[in-house]
Write a structure and sequence with these properties.
Layout lengths: L1 H8 L6 H32 L12 H43 L4 H6 L2 H43 L1 H48 L1 H6 L3 H53 L5 H42 L19 E8 L9 E8 L4 E6 L5 H6 L9 E6 L2 E2 L5 H6 L1 E5 L9 H5 L7 H10 L3 H6 L17 H15 L3 E5 L7 H15 L3 E5 L3 H6 L2 E6 L2 E6 L1 H7 L2 H9 L1
Parallel strand pairs: 3-8, 3-9, 6-7, 7-8
Antiparallel strand pairs: 1-2, 1-4, 4-5, 9-10
Helix pairs in contact: 2-3, 2-5, 2-9, 3-5, 3-9, 5-6, 5-9, 6-8, 6-9, 8-9, 13-15, 15-16
Bound molecules: adenosine-5'-diphosphate and magnesium ion.
């Protein structure tokens, strides 16, 4: 717990001046606190005199009361403001750090996290953590100081009695600890329940058409009901645990107060205490209860904040992609070689790739064909190191992939696959993804991808924002936009993974032309089932269950009359 808060405190270091200001103000607010019972004592002992003749003019006391309370309010308010502003800045930094890590995270780690849980950590948990800090600081900081200031005053007035008070405190502390542990467990469960609810929402937004088509709404509604019901239960428990904290502390505290009261009363009767002294002592005692109570609330907040921080730091500490290589040429020539590459997915029985060897000469075109599930996508995903092979060697320009600097490696590769990812941004930004924006080149790329006519017909042209995942575009237009992006990237190696499989025939023709333009002067690995594309390939590899079973050019493979010939016959 201490370690995690120490680490968290590093986030406050850049704001230490504001933080210091907030703390000074807190201190001032706390120091004003014992002045109130002190004033009470003076008032009773000197202000009110039995005979009715006051030693002070009448207006002194009311003025002092107003001044003291105003000072307390002013100090509290401004310390509040200072601390909130620091908390806000810390939230922003935490979010930036998490996001920066997320985009370089190892894909295997990301695959295990649900989007909703990441969103929750980035959004809610960051503010919960900083808020818990603010509340703890303000509450515990101020209340702790108040308690200390009041205790100091009590000691000064009557140390014997105060010692007895202090021996009672550990009792309260123990109670707080026991309830607090339970609270922490419940809070953790509550967070998991929130993730689950978010997850159901996320899935249903993404798959809403499927849900409608299969009339699965009832099923999903009851699934959601279960998730929310579970969450409600956890929230109730957390509320009950947090709520029980205060009354339990109060009841424990009342025992302490009762003991002290009786001793003080007997001392007063013995004449050791003046009336003013007694009243001031009891006032200070009672003033102690509220801050002591919020101290126990602060504990609940501390627990909640710790759970949030654990999730946040787990995300910030997630494994990055391995990047140990240093080979970083500006532009590769583009010779690609796979040697005995094997890959078995975790929790899969058969290998997805089984000792696959193939080489692609620079600027040549290789086609991968084979039944669905034969390992074609797996093979091409290893090239940009989206997947790591279990064994075997993969090289570009005779340099093994792990010796390439990861960024340099990926700069050499343009990829168009079946599922196209578009950003809810302008067409221009989508074409120039990750590159410096050059409008002339982007227009050229769109033209070469046969998309410019359509783009120009849009009201804002190239600056049109294409909507969430580019839903305003047809399948063929999306495909051509992806090709324009690949053209713009102008990488020496091109991977096309069923890039034309989801097209109508009108778009297909255009995409085909665009593809041919794209392939010029590049090393191309094309996963295809269209005859027209395959026929032009320099070499064709036929895959079956993770292995290469045939290779050769089109004529050779047809002449061989093996698996390839069979595949082609199935198509026509
Ligand atoms: P293709 O692209 O030729 O259709 P894939 O490379 O996508 O084939 O898949 C090859 C095999 O690996 C299949 O049996 C598939 O079920 C399996 N596979 C693909 N992706 C994963 C994954 N992420 N986890 C586990 N198994 C996978
Ligand atoms: Mg595939």
């Amino acid at each position: 717990m201490l370690r995690i808060y120490l680490r968290f405190s590093a986030y406050f270091r850049p704001h230490r001046r504001m933080l210091g200001l907030g703390m000074v103000l807190l201190l001032l607010a706390a120091l004003v606190e014992p002045l109130i019972p002190a004033l009470m004592k003076q008032l009773l002992d000197h202000g009110v005199v039995q005979s009715g003749q006051s030693a002070w003019p009448w207006w002194v006391v009311p003025l002092a009361v107003i001044a003291l309370f105003s000072a307390r309010a002013l100090f509290s308010f401004s310390s509040n403001l200072a601390l909130s502003s620091v908390a806000g800045k810390v939230v922003a930094t935490l979010r930036r750090d998490m996001f920066a890590r997320m985009v370089v995270a190892d894909s295997r780690w990301l695959a295990k996290e649900s989007t909703s849980s990441l969103i929750n950590t980035l959004g809610t948990e960051a503010s919960v953590a900083a808020d818990s800090f603010r509340i703890v600081f303000q509450g515990a900081g101020r209340d702790l100081l108040t308690v200390l200031a009041l205790l100091g005053y009590l000691f000064w007035m009557n140390w014997g009695l105060t010692l007895i008070t202090l021996t009672l405190l550990p009792m309260i502390a123990l109670v707080i600890r026991v309830v607090g542990q339970r609270l922490q467990r419940v809070v953790q469960q509550q967070q998991q329940a929130v993730d689950e609810v978010n997850y159901v929402i996320e899935e249903n937004v993404l798959a809403n058409r499927m849900v409608k088509l299969h009339l699965a709404q009832h099923q999903q509604v009851s699934r959601f009901r279960n998730a929310t019901e579970y969450l409600r239960g956890r929230q109730m428990r957390a509320l009950a645990a947090a709520g029980a904290m205060t009354p339990i502390t109060q009841i424990t505290a009342s025992f302490a107060v009762a003991v002290i009261l009786s001793i003080a009363l007997s001392q007063a009767q013995g004449g050791e205490l003046t009336v003013g002294g007694f009243a001031a002592y009891i006032t200070a005692m009672l003033m102690l209860i509220n801050p002591a109570k919020s101290l126990s609330d602060a504990y609940a907040n501390l627990q909640r904040g710790r759970v949030a921080l654990e999730r946040i730091f787990r995300m910030i500490d997630c494994p990055e992609e391995e990047n140990l290589g240093s080979y970083a040429p500006n532009r590769a020539v583009g010779a690609v070689q796979f040697k005995e590459v094997s890959k078995t997915y975790p929790e899969a029985g058969a290998p997805a790739l089984n000792r696959v060897s193939l080489s692609v000469a620079a600027h040549s075109v290789v086609a991968l064909v084979g039944a669905s599930g034969s390992g074609k996508t797996t093979l091409v995903q290893t090239l940009p190191r989206f997947l790591l092979a279990d064994s075997g060697e993969i090289s570009i320009d005779q340099v093994q992939l792990q010796d390439w600097e990861l960024g340099a490696l990926r700069r050499q590769i343009a990829m168009v696959s079946q599922d196209i990812t578009l950003f809810n941004d302008s067409l221009l930004a989508n074409v120039c993804l990750g590159e410096t924006v050059d409008e002339t080149r982007a227009v050229q790329a769109l033209e070469d991808a046969y998309l410019l006519d359509h783009v120009l017909s849009l009201p804002q042209g190239i600056h049109t924002v294409i909507g969430h995942d580019g839903r305003q575009l047809s399948g063929g237009q999306r495909q051509r936009l992806a090709l324009a992006r690949a053209l713009y990237k102008d990488a020496p190696i091109l991977i096309l993974d069923e890039a034309t499989s989801a097209l109508d025939s009108e778009s297909e023709q255009k995409v085909q032309l665009a593809l041919e333009r794209l392939m010029q002067g590049r090393t191309t690995i094309i996963v295809a089932h269209r005859l027209s594309t395959i026929r032009k390939a320099d070499r064709i590899y036929v895959m079956d269950r993770g292995e290469i079973v045939e290779q050769g050019n089109y004529a050779e493979l047809i002449a061989k009359d093996g698996s390839f010939a069979r595949l082609i016959r199935q198509q026509t």
